[in-house]
TrEMBL record:
The lineage of its organism: Eukaryota, Viridiplantae, Streptophyta, Embryophyta, Tracheophyta. Binds 1 divalent metal cation per subunit. InterPro entries: Aldolase_TIM (IPR013785), Ribul_P_3_epim (IPR026019), Ribul_P_3_epim-like (IPR000056), RibuloseP-bd_barrel (IPR011060). This is Ribulose-phosphate 3-epimerase. Signal peptide: none annotated. The keyword Aminoacyl-tRNA synthetase does not apply. One of its GO terms (biological process) is pentose-phosphate shunt. It comes from the Eukaryota. It comes from Acorus calamus (Sweet flag).
Amino acid sequence: MAAVAAKIAPSMLSSDFANLASEAERMVRCGADWLHMDIMDGHFVPNLTIGAPVIESLRKHTRTYLDCHLMVTNPLDYVEPLAKAGASGFTFHVEATKDHWKELVRTIKTKGMRPGVALKPATSVEEVFPLVEYENPVELVLVMTVEPGFGGQKFMPEMMDKVRTLRKKYPSLDIEVDGGLGPSTIGMAASAGANCIVAGSSVFGAAEPAEAISILRKSVEGAQQKF
């Protein structure tokens, strides 16, 4: 029996933003578990994407789990607006929250969202241990397999050591990977122990997105049997 459930989260950054509601519906119809929403402030990362108003608009059209990844300098400022907008998960970056993550996690949970922590490729995996082991812990760790900020980058296989370390240390933790995931790289991520898979261009650019999602899911489920 799988230790943790496979969750496939198409990255809406790769969707047609002019038709976000129908793109979200299409992904859910194709088998997506979550919809991954990249929120960038143009400061923590160079790109600028969406914020709470877009989440609020999309929430009116879907009940699906909205997996929000905050690539922002001041995540605390986003908690209340995103909670009101209908975000489901709130994943912040450890690099942006060195001093106040305890307050941040508490606030996220108080507002009814699920807290997660993300780390950039250059950040050591040990940085997130305290957040997972705290008495009021984060519930997901997102290992970036590309530099955050832009879609369509190449997968960094050397990041799989972080995933392996986390899976060995925390068998029941949701471990998410984001960046360059597709049919050619999913095996590495799944066998390392990732169970939440963010995929952008490999799903949205596929001739059959449902087939692409199915390949990702089967790979995770197959690998999970070994943990």
